Amino acid sequence: MAAPAPKQEELQPHAVRDQLPAVSYCLTSPPPWPEAILLGFQHYLVMLGTTVIIPTALVPQMGGGNEEKARVIQTLLFVAGINTLIQTFLGTRLPAVIGGSYTFVAPTISIILAGRYSGIADPHEKFLRIMRGTQGALIVASTLQIILGFSGLWRIVVRLLSPLSAAPLVALVGFGLYELGFPSVAKCIEIGLPQILLLVALSQYIPHLLPLVGTAFERFAVIMSIVVVWLYAFFLTVGGAYKNAAPKTQFHCRTDRSGLVGGAPWISVPYPFQWGAPTFDAGEAFAMMAASFVALVESTGAFIAVSRYASATPCPPSIMSRGIGWQGVGILLGGLFGTANGSSVSVENAGLLGLTRVGSRRVVQISAGFMIFFSVLGKFGAVFASIPGPIIAAIYCLLFAYVVPQYFNEYTSVAGFGPVHTHARWFNDMINVVFSSKAFVGGAVAYFLDNTLHRRDGTVRKDRGHHFWDRFRSFKTDPRSEEFYSLPFNLNKFFPSF
């Protein structure tokens, strides 16, 4: 009689690790200076997308022209650099880029459509009045994150967050912007599609085909692909490929249609109240506060992703709360300088950390230096900011997938207003903004179910992964927290973490 077949070993899941393996440079281990500078410049190029797209969409509706658009982009870039330095030095100390946020677009458009601005005939005067209105709303909205963050109230919320409820929050922070990726690529498919294919080839295939030099291609795939496709788009432009194309096609495909280089000053330093004194309206402030709360939730998910990609231990709740407080200060700076937009953690730059496997804090601080430098030297910064949108959108399609409450967005696109449509515009904006955020809705539902369904059952608690984060609930429980999250210059003595 033949011997029985050997019993197949039962498959076991991979062991959960405190830190992500196979990361070349973690949070506290910077790469050599030449490589760090190139990687920092790459982060700068990636964050330019939202920095350019948001003002390009909002400023013309506000009444501004190319000159105003260039100055708003310059201001947004300058404030983003300051906020990124603040976050990496005093906030969570994670390599998180703080940039413009799509979450604040809806309340800004609501301010643009406010009746008190409709009678202004002069476009420039209309732009200034609307800009001052957004400044006042942002200044008020910033207090929400400042209070929740620095008071430690947000720490209480984060303590109840488990890996099970964090997973949809982190995923939907990226998935929530899906509709902004491929549709933008399709606006000029002849340069958007080559960008996707080249970036995939350089980052995923070349490293395996050429192992000796593959690391360089993997680490600098974004810079290489942008240079090649940008040159390709330039030759199409000068060669007359779009000479008889429709105006929209020329705007998205040509490399000389942004109007940013001509409108940008050679040297200019943004300063607070450069557009005039802010104006305040209670309804607009409430709508912007709703957006601020949504950005707070989205940034919490992004901070979790960044800590993982940087190969740091899970961020202690007190550190997360500290980071949210400083992000509130960042929104305040946006209101003071006049960016027409609030700020949050840049998800695309978090994706770049995963792509390059470099989670160094120094690299992101260098990128902040590029933001400030090119915002002051306006003409030079405008050259990079004039990269055609489909190229940037193609990068976003790979760095994060831009889709869950799609009902709110589709309802708005068809009806012209959100599902909540009362006579109180500020109330409509508050509800519609909150429930239009995929990350907020997905994260809130997961958080509620995770903390209400059988939460005292030991088996369920283990399935939630809560036990894995238990030892990171306090700053002093794990000795590695001091290495990753302690403040520089012995500031922990004055601002202790718990």
UniProtKB/TrEMBL annotation:
Where, subcellularly, is it found?
Membrane
Residues crossing the lipid bilayer are: 41-60, 72-90, 96-115, 136-154, 192-214, 220-242, 370-403, 430-449
Cellular compartments per GO CC: membrane
Q: Which UniProt keywords apply?
A: Membrane, Transmembrane, Transmembrane helix
InterPro entries attached here? NCS2
Q: Would the keyword Membrane be found if you checked this record's keyword annotation?
A: yes
Does the record carry Transmembrane as a key word?
yes
State the annotated membrane topology for this chain: Multi-pass membrane protein
Domain of life of the organism encoding this protein: Eukaryota
Pfam families, alphabetized: Xan_ur_permease
Q: Which PANTHER family match?
A: XANTHINE-URACIL / VITAMIN C PERMEASE FAMILY MEMBER
Q: Which family does it belong to?
A: Belongs to the nucleobase:cation symporter-2 (NCS2) (TC 2.A.40) family.
Q: What is this protein called?
A: Nucleobase-ascorbate transporter 6
